[in-house]
Amino acid sequence: MPPPTNSSSDGYDIAFRLFLGVLAVVIPLSHLAWLSGNVTAWLTGHDLAPYQPTAALLHPDQLWPTAGETSLLVGARIVPIAALLALGAVVGVLASRHKTSGGGRKKKIAGMAKPKDIEPLMAKAITAKARSLRPSLKTAKHIDAKDTGVLLGNLQGTRHEVRMGYEDVAVAIMAPRSGKTTSLAIPSILAAPGPVLLTSNKAAGDAYTATLDARSEAGRVWSMDPQQIAHAARQMWWNPLADAKTLDGAGRLAGHFLAASVDASQQGDFWSKAGSNILSQLFLAAALDERPITDVMQWLAFPADRTPLDILRDHDFTAVAAQLKGTVEGPPETRDGIYETARQYAAALLNSQIAAWVTPQKDVPEFRPSQFVTSTDTLYLLSKDGGGGASALIAACADSVMRAATTQAERAGGRLDPPMLAILDEAANVCKISDLPDLYSHLGSRGIIPITILQSYRQGQKVWGDAGMDAMWSASTVKVIGSGIDDPDFADKLSRLIGDHDVETTSTSHSESGKSTSVSMRQERILPADAIRALPKGTALCFATGMRAAMLDLRPWYLEPGADELSAASARASKAITARAVAKHAPGQGDYGTAA
């Protein structure tokens, strides 16, 4: 038979709580009865009663002896009870909203970074860092927040802004509709102090339309839209062969066509490498002779054409010419297979509307990356998902801009000032730069700030392979993880990176001598994988080098000051896209892609 337990203390606890509950009801109800009774007496022409809330509740006929029974019932009973119930309902609703939204903020998670843990990303430290990185700010008395770094959000449950500095490089992994555009891409573009590059596969209702007007006030806007995502008039052209006058430059250009056509796992086979080599040799010949890139398609159609061989020899690239000749004069079945592979990679150049963006155009200005990186201009690079050769041109242009920025930074003493922001949205679909993981190791130190936005970690692995994506992840000084992570392995990896924390466990036992309580500590994941998968929209995890993982409240542009003007501008730009699309497809209309 178990020993008897002493339950007297439990009875005292229950009685005390009941007493407090009665007080919580009686005190406000008595005051409401006195107040409501006096209001009723005043309205009915009777004398007001002195301050006696208890009597008003228990004996209202003594305080208002001349009032009728009906008046007392309504004024000192029904109205106070109704008011108290209504007040309780309001408090309940507000408490419920505060619980679900944290009063406008999310509930803090125990074990995540506190302000002191990520101090280098806070206002004071990030401002001091900006002064040391940017010579133009060293003597400034006041520095605007946008000049100090890219806003990532607020530390959850606080007003502390978290920013990545203008020497950081970032990877953002965020599922669709998780805030990657509204809370990261658009605010970053709007606040950028220098040139901005954006790649995207959307126009209407996206970063393009939301920032177009604002960035046109900062500098010139360039839009490269070979597949008519925004149905933009062709008001620029860019020469992809400008950087192809060396074997390395030509190889990089060919590599973009290769990466746009096949996944990383297929790029090492014989036909892929041979087709890429032929393209690089022909790109080199066309660049050396200052020909348009479309001439390469003519040479691919007729392998016997000796023009590229002669050009390479005339410019002392005899070894390259010998390699090209060996392929041309090799076994016909092998040669034809190699050339056909190359034709498929560069097939987009057969489309005259696409080729027009990368060949000289009369009365249309040429986009020059070397000039762009010293300006405050904006370059929008638009391409469809799976755009093949068209997305190769987008990747090549973005790569050319970043390399021009690197060269300019070296000329300027090591860094660009102001820095250049490169938002590579949908990078795995429209901007497959093969060695982007390698570039991450030094771009930040040059004042070139890339933010590569992916929908999942596996998407990056498909483009850059396991080793490449791991290298990019490791080289990124800031990682932002939004809601919608459905990869269990990746979610578990993030959970392990966030770590464990001590949780206090209380146990109670009963004995003949009474109740005893003991406290012990155990280790528990701060954020388990299932919680990472269920991250609510509007929040994101932030991993910064050498700091604890932080939970952020995102800051979408439409909740910031000036959102109404931006919304109106975005609506106008989207409406203009629709109008251009309708006009383009109207009967009797010609190519809308010509210069306006």
TrEMBL record:
Membrane topology: Multi-pass membrane protein
Keywords, in A-Z order: Cell membrane, Membrane, Transmembrane, Transmembrane helix
Ranges that cross the membrane: 14-34, 74-96
SUPFAM superfamilies named among the record's database cross-references: P-loop containing nucleoside triphosphate hydrolases (SSF52540)
Location relative to the cell: Cell membrane
Keyword hit for Transferase: no
Gene3D superfamilies the UniProt entry points to: P-loop containing nucleotide triphosphate hydrolases
One GO cellular component term noted in the UniProt record for this chain: plasma membrane
Record domain TraD/TraG TraM recognition site: where: 419-537
Annotated InterPro entries: P-loop_NTPase, T4SS-coupling_protein, TraG-D_C
Region (Disordered): 503-522
Compositionally biased spans, kind Low complexity: 505-520
Predominant location: membrane
Protein name listed in UniProt: TraD/TraG TraM recognition site domain-containing protein
